[in-house]
Amino acid sequence: MFAVSTLVYPCVLAALCAGAGLLVDRLSGGFLPGMLLAPVGAAALIAVSQLSTYAAFAAPATPYALAFVAIAGWALGWGRARALAREWRRWRWQLAVLVLAYLAALAPVLLAGRPTFSSFGILDDSAFHLLGADYLMRHGQDYAHLDLRNSYGQYINAYYATGYPSGADTLFGGSAFILGAPLIWTMQPFNAFMLALAAGPMWVLVRRIGLAEGWAALATVTATVPALVYGYELVASVKEIVALGMILTLGALVALHPRWLWRGATGAIPFAIVLAGGIAALGVGFGAWALATVLVLAAIAAGEIRAGRERARELLGALGLAAAIVLVGALSTWTGFSRSVHVAQGIATTTNPGNLHAPLHLAQVFGTWLSGSYENAPGGALAALTYALVALTLLAGALGALRLLYLGESALLGWIAAMLAVGLALQLLAGTWVGAKALLLSSPAIVLLAWSGFAALRSARAGPALRAAPVLALALVVGVAASDAMQYHDSNLAPTARYEELAAIDARFAGRGPTLYGGFDEYALYELRDLDLGGVDFMYPPAGAALMGGHGYPVDLDRVPPRIWTAYPLVLTRRDPTTSEPPAAYRLAWQGTYYQVWARRPGAPVAIVHLGLSGRRPVKCTRVKRLARLAREHGAQIVAAIPPPVVRVEVARGRHPDWRYTHPGLAMKGAGRLRSTFSIPHAGSWEVWLKGQLMPTADIGVDGRSIGAIGAQLDGNPHNPDALTPLRATLSAGRHHLTISRGDSLLAAGAGGWAILHEIFLTPAGAPDVDTLRAVSPGRWRSLCGGRYDWIEAVRA
Predict the structure, then answer these.
(1) Is the pLDDT of residue 129 over 60?
(2) Which pLDDT score is estimated for 257?
(3) How many domains does the chain contain in total?
């Protein structure tokens, strides 16, 4: 699956987009540069997928529709494709740029060597795009039949039925369905590919500022993946990444306007298709960028008409055809225009900053941000270096603007000015969330201007300016590369094996829900989409779930009211000997490496009362006596859940001079070692369990001997620990020393990701890690006094 998702899938996407681009180029008269074929083709495929999903009955045919458009393009544009292929030597830098941009964007996944994604735990919006892309391919834009009693239906309804833009999702879903590849593993390659496509129009713009070959390649890559763009790509911000490619393609078409603006109606087809694709992907919010671009073109056209070089009536046909294409290509946006506007207004005015703790810094628009996350500011010497590079980029950008004026590139300069004006306006007028996206979409234009400043220095014939050019180029390249490398280093990668186990559970128990899911993991909504999932970790919990906890926290099974259990034939929990299990009405139906599935016994009665206990302290007789009295009144028996034997290891009191213990646990930041001691009652084989979040690999040792390593095991929220896969050790009775050591590689993907340790404990190997149930009559309640139990309940026989 790794090769399919990271290598085969992008090749399929490239063939689809290039074929669609050849078709558009043929229809418009054959003026598109080669580097714009795929981006324009992507916009065309978005329009096609929006139309095919608009009619629900045609939605399953979307992959075939995309393939048909691409094949038609290759057939009709075969002559153009052959001509480009014959000139392959001229394309070495362009191809290198596209490949390098893709490799950089997907670096965490590629170097991890497994199917995964890098947005895990940072911005879970990608979980809902997985749901949406899957739903749209199966049911289209028809939401009338959604079951709003479960989390799946509520999420689809809250996002997509309310006018949420879906253009990126329909292209994503349609292209992945062609291969039959799981969306969860193709999501990050799709985002990386769409960002790499943006390098196409950026190459065109870089060539307009006077750079060629190697210098053009460096400028293109750094301007396409500056720090903020790279950060948003890592968290799979699919709408913004797709929209960025559309915005840059509009800019390239503005710069190339003499080729198409006056050549008749068909000349405007690519421009209109890109407008439609951008609106479908980002919603009416794309209108700000589209309107600014149209106004720049209008000013250009008006100037040429006043100069007598062109006539206004030659534009009328182009305007009419362009309007029709934009209307049809983004049809779902226009038919639900009021909803789309409401969504855009809600996003623009919301006070909810999402994953942002504070508004992003304006300095982040300049491409360099020497921090492991765009959410956090650099500290110490890195902060000083960051702002020095920002100042240098600002000065280079000012010089670059003067160069564009000198070259007479008024169209390109006007478009850049319009884009920056839109970004600044949104930054000042909108909320934190939209302001951050405005900086993201403006950053490539700023870096492009800085490279224009480099071109100005390089064009000097001699003197300090010529000698300063390589220094500026080095600063721009190192600033962006170092910023991206730090984010690569600190990325969190999704746990592949755990999600594959969830997919296996979904296939095994499909249709047997509703299922109560006990963990916090919004990606489980996609993997378990056939189990009618509910749980408090989701935004829309089932009835009564407010009594169990809250959003962002796992389900405390002991707090579930007994009457609610009858609604769930299945319960899904993580394997963890220290947590409570479902009540006596359930039996263990399946156990894997990470999860346990519990099935409700047919006809099992509802518990009269359920007494949740921690299992750590002896239960007081007074509590058992009260429960026994209720059991006797209802003719019920008492059932007690005896937890597996557990030996706990001190974490907070252990020696860890390099780390800091804080809520929610021991933050193992950077290389270091934890040392602690424990005692076991008998010799034998024991399993050592860690609870927490561990992206980097840590080595576990007992008495100076390594028993194994654990890494790349994460859950949905760092505040909610889950047990990691245990390691086995053969130990003698008595006292032992335990160590946990981690390094910090600069090259390993995610080596700087989450590393939070909550607990360490041991259980006897080979013994069941589930509770043992003990049933007694109410008259024998004293036999339970002083015992340690996960829970006790009164159940009718």
Answers:
(1) yes
(2) 87
(3) 2
